Amino acid sequence: MRKAVVIGAAGQIGRPVVDALARDGWAVTAVSRGGGRDAGWDEGVRTARVDRADGDALAALVGDGCELLVDVVAYDAGHARQLTSLADRIGSAVVISSVAVYEDGAGRGFDTQGEPDGFPVYPVPVPETQPTVAPGEATYSTRKAALEAELLAAGDAFPVTVLRAGAVHGPYSPLPRELYFVKRNLDGRKRRVLAYRGESRFHPSSTRTIAELVRLAAARPGSRVLNACDAEAPTAAEIGAAVDAVMGAETRTVCLDGPPEGSVGRTPWSVPLPVVCDMSAARRELGYRPVVSYADSLPETVEWLAGRVRGRDWREAFPLLARVYPDLFDYAAEDAWCAA
């Protein structure tokens, strides 16, 4: 059987990637810090407990070689060098990056969003040929750019498909954007406030979409960069309506014409201009076809989120989300604004 090693296998993206490859006939070794004992994979999936930072352990795991290595947690140039050092033992690789590497023609990107007039003005949709930020160590975006540059510099000696994901969604997320709507419904909130008229579009990426792209890239090795987003890019208001439909909730949406007012109207999708990516290259190069719509992917996400927060503080359940959006559920501020 063809051998595949998946690094970061027990996480949000890794789980469906392992499942997709196993169903496609790969002999998969699922690598994670905890060994993935609770991941529920088929008996044919081998598990291994390895720290991503331990290059020697990764090299030992690859051993005499594998036909495919998938890395869903690679973050910077150092991680890229770990992978390229194994090039003679790996048939091809698929590595997850991010649409955060893109910048517009004026040098604006995800890192400049907080500056006056700093939000990037991207073409709609954004192709893979769009300029990217300079590689570096300063931010998430520059580190991902450095990861890509190091990997692609190897050329044909190391066939690697880099997948640029958008707003990743699905169960097991450490930063579940859908919680903004799910928790409000669980808390019985009948009204929500959305900035930018509820029209913000930040292209989502289902973990099942990413897994399908990994599966296709594994069958067609090559050096390439591809966007890895869903077929649809719904607005924030449309996402809220889709969550309501899953939960059987009736909610009134109040919109701000412009940006959030403090915490009021701020959501994990609150962007003043669209971030929508072009998926035509994936269709052309891999034969990709959508495997799930955003709405159809929601029930399992909603069920998982509801189970995680029911009876506990959401900040305890999702500490990363709480750090990024500490005031995501400031109901008092919302009520005061609506009453004004």
Model description:
- The protein is an alpha/beta fold and 340 residues long.
- It is built from twelve helices and eleven strands.
- The strands form three sheets. The protein has a seven-stranded parallel sheet with strand order 3-2-1-4-5-6-10, with helices on both faces. A two-stranded parallel sheet has the order 7-9. Strands 8-11 form a two-stranded parallel ribbon.
- The radius of gyration is 20 Å and the shape is globular.
- The N and C termini lie far apart (66 Å).
Short description:
With 340 residues, the protein is of the alpha/beta class. Helices cover 34% and strands 16% of the residues. 44% of the residues are buried.
Features:
16% strand, 340 residues, single chain, two-stranded parallel ribbon, 11 strands
List the helices and strands and how they pair.
Layout: E1 3-7, H1 14-23, E2 27-32, E3 46-49, H2 55-62, E4 66-71, H3 77-84, E5 90-98, H4 140-152, E6 160-165, E7 167-169, H5 179-186, E8 191-194, E9 204-206, H6 207-219, E10 224-228, H7 236-247, E11 252-255, H8 280-286, H9 294-309, H10 314-317, H11 319-324, H12 331-339
Parallel strand pairs: 1-2, 1-4, 2-3, 4-5, 5-6, 6-10, 7-9, 8-11
